[in-house]
Design a protein that fits this description.
CATH topology of the largest domain: Glutathione S-transferase Yfyf (Class Pi), Chain A, domain 2
CATH architecture of the largest domain: Up-down Bundle
CATH class of the largest domain: Mainly Alpha
Strand content: 5-15%
Number of domains: 2
Number of helices: 8
Helix content: 55-70%
Order of helices and strands: EHEEEHHHHHHH
C-alpha cells in the first residue's frame, strides 16, 4: 500500500488532530515538515493551508476530510458512530471546534499567551480578556455534555474528541485556561483520560 504522508508545518494544531486520528487508527504514516507554505505549496491546497494528506496519487486537504478519509479507508478502531443522530452530534462538535473553539482557545488564549512570547512578540492582553467569556462558555458546554458520558458522542472515543482535545489542551497550559477549568471537573477527567492515551504522547509537538 502507498505511503500515507501528511504535509504540514511541524508545529500545527490541525496537524496534531490529523496525527491523533492516524495513531488511534493504528496506521503507519509520516509527516513531511514544511516551515511555511512557500512557493509551490498551492499545488497541494488552493489557499496554501496545512495539513494536506497524500496517499499515493490522492491528495486530500482540510482536516475533517483527512480525518474522515483515514477513518473510512483503514482498518482499526472506528472513530465515527454509525447511528445518524450520533454521527450528527459528532459533526456538530467538530463544527463548533472549527468555528468557535479554535478561534477562542488557540487564537484568543494559547497563541497570545504561549506562542507570542516564544516568538518574541508582545502578548495581546486585551485579546485574552475579550476571549475569556467565550472560553468559559465553551468549557461549560463541554462540561454539560461530559456529565452524561465519558466521551463527547455515544459514550465512545470519536473524531469529536480528537478535534476538541488539542485546542483545550493548549489553552489549559495557561493560567487563564487552568482557572477556567476549575469549575469543570468532568472536562478535567476527560482531558486526563485522553492525554494518557498513547496517541497523545506519540503526537507531541515541540517548538
Amino acid at each position: 500500500m502507498a505511503d500515507l504522508v501528511l504535509h504540514s508545518r511541524a508545529l500545527s494544531l490541525y496537524l496534531r488532530i490529523a496525527t491523533l486520528v492516524c495513531e488511534e487508527k493504528q496506521i503507519n504514516y509520516r509527516v513531511a515538515a514544511r516551515d511555511a507554505p512557500g512557493e509551490g505549496f498551492r499545488e497541494f491546497h488552493p489557499f496554501e493551508k496545512m495539513p494536506v494528506l497524500q496517499h499515493g496519487d490522492l491528495m486530500i486537504y482540510e482536516t475533517l476530510a483527512i480525518a474522515d478519509y483515514v477513518n473510512r479507508a483503514f482498518d482499526g478502531p472506528a472513530l465515527s458512530p454509525v447511528a445518524p443522530q450520533a454521527h450528527a452530534e459528532m459533526l456538530t462538535w467538530i463544527s463548533l471546534t472549527n468555528a468557535y473553539f479554535f478561534p477562542t482557545m488557540m487564537g484568543g488564549i494559547a497563541k497570545p499567551l504561549l506562542m507570542a512570547p516564544l516568538q518574541g512578540e508582545p502578548t495581546d492582553h486585551d485579546l485574552v480578556a475579550r476571549s475569556l467569556p467565550d472560553l468559559e462558555k465553551q468549557i461549560a458546554l463541554l462540561e454539560a455534555s461530559l456529565k452524561q458520558s465519558p466521551y463527547l458522542v455515544a459514550g465512545e472515543l470519536s473524531l469529536a474528541d480528537l478535534f476538541v482535545l488539542p485546542n483545550l489542551f493548549y489553552a489549559s497550559l495557561t493560567d487563564e485556561g487552568t482557572r477556567a477549568l476549575r469549575e469543570a471537573p468532568k472536562v478535567q477527567d476527560w482531558m486526563k483520560r485522553l492525554t494518557s492515551r498513547p496517541s497523545f504522547a506519540a503526537t507531541e509537538q515541540r517548538p
